[in-house]
Amino acid sequence: MAEQRKPFDLLNSALNNTVIVGLKGGKEFRGVMIAYDIHMNIVLEKAELLENGEVKKGLGTVLVRGDSVVYVSPS
Amino acid sequence: MAEQRKPFDLLNSALNNTVIVGLKGGKEFRGVMIAYDIHMNIVLEKAELLENGEVKKGLGTVLVRGDSVVYVSPS
Amino acid sequence: MAEQRKPFDLLNSALNNTVIVGLKGGKEFRGVMIAYDIHMNIVLEKAELLENGEVKKGLGTVLVRGDSVVYVSPS
Amino acid sequence: MAEQRKPFDLLNSALNNTVIVGLKGGKEFRGVMIAYDIHMNIVLEKAELLENGEVKKGLGTVLVRGDSVVYVSPS
Amino acid sequence: MAEQRKPFDLLNSALNNTVIVGLKGGKEFRGVMIAYDIHMNIVLEKAELLENGEVKKGLGTVLVRGDSVVYVSPS
Amino acid sequence: MAEQRKPFDLLNSALNNTVIVGLKGGKEFRGVMIAYDIHMNIVLEKAELLENGEVKKGLGTVLVRGDSVVYVSPS
Amino acid sequence: MAEQRKPFDLLNSALNNTVIVGLKGGKEFRGVMIAYDIHMNIVLEKAELLENGEVKKGLGTVLVRGDSVVYVSPS
Lengths: 75, 75, 75, 75, 75, 75, 75
Prior knowledge:
The structure is a homoheptamer. Chain A is mostly beta strands.
């Protein structure tokens, strides 16, 4: 069988692509992921804050602290 | 008696199968688990977000952070 | 006096028996405990989700993350 | 002055006696403490769940996870 | 300048005196502190549970888990 | 460029001055900071508890556990 | 391909510039970031507390504890 895939492979393959980052409490950020680390700290460019799937405001560049991340999904 | 089973054996045997991942706060993801690690970070493909057992939206591929996971159940 | 008992002795003696696992937030799982580890990650077979003591749904096999566990009680 | 007392001395001296264990969220367990460890994981026998000081249900033996414990009081 | 004071000096000087211990969620214990450790686990004697500054009930001796402590104040 | 400043420099320079300490949940303490450590445990003298910016009660000396601290601001 | 960027690069490049720091619970601070560390403890000068995007009050200098930080965004 092939070598086992690891969760962070998804982050690596999503670099420089648009992702949605779900936060504790239910809000989401959508933006282009330009950096991440092993704590799941994530930097998004052209970031937007979403509430209930709708754009609430634009944020430009944003560093999201890994401790607040619930999920990351390439969009 | 046989060798003792460990909780992560369940994750290993569920690889490439559909699982439900319950999150803090009560929401659930359902999808095909293609990767996990010792922190219980989990990658699902063909993922759907469920609320009260009903599909709320499709997410494609999603990385769920282990810190938010309450349970994992092969469906 | 006899050797002191340790909390995990209870888990060991409850292996392959039905237990109730209480979760943060108040829900409970009931099922046959087939595995656990030092983080109190627990695998139940024939698991049911309980709310206010009533069966809400069946889950088959479920891995409960130790971080969400409040108590474990042989039933 | 005498040797300084340590908090876990209280647990040791309360072994095999009835204690009340207060949990995050406000519920309490009352029972005979037969085991504890350095994480404050605690096993009670003849345990009862209390809400607002009233017995809600009997649980027999219960392992309470230290992470959920707020206080322990010999009753 | 004099040697710098450390927060735990306050606990040491308050040993065997009455203190108020504020908890996450807003409740308070008041009692005579007879022991503490580096995790801020604290043992009170003649302890009372306070809600909104009023005595709710007497508890005798109580071990408060450091993880639930917000503040400690000699009264 | 000058040597980089570190967050704890602010605590050091605020020693023996009045600070406001914001807590999880929204309450604040105001008092003279006489001690702190690397966990951000903080001792205030002449401490007052504030709710919505208004003095709720005086506390004399108080040890605030770092885990509950959200921010510290010299006033 | 170029060397991979890391999340803390964003903090470094934002030093001495105005940033918005989002907190658990939804409040935000806006101010000039003059210091940070690996825990994401952050010092802001000319800091303002924002609620729903509106200035609630001025705080002068404030040390924000990393544990409470959800995101940091250069404004």
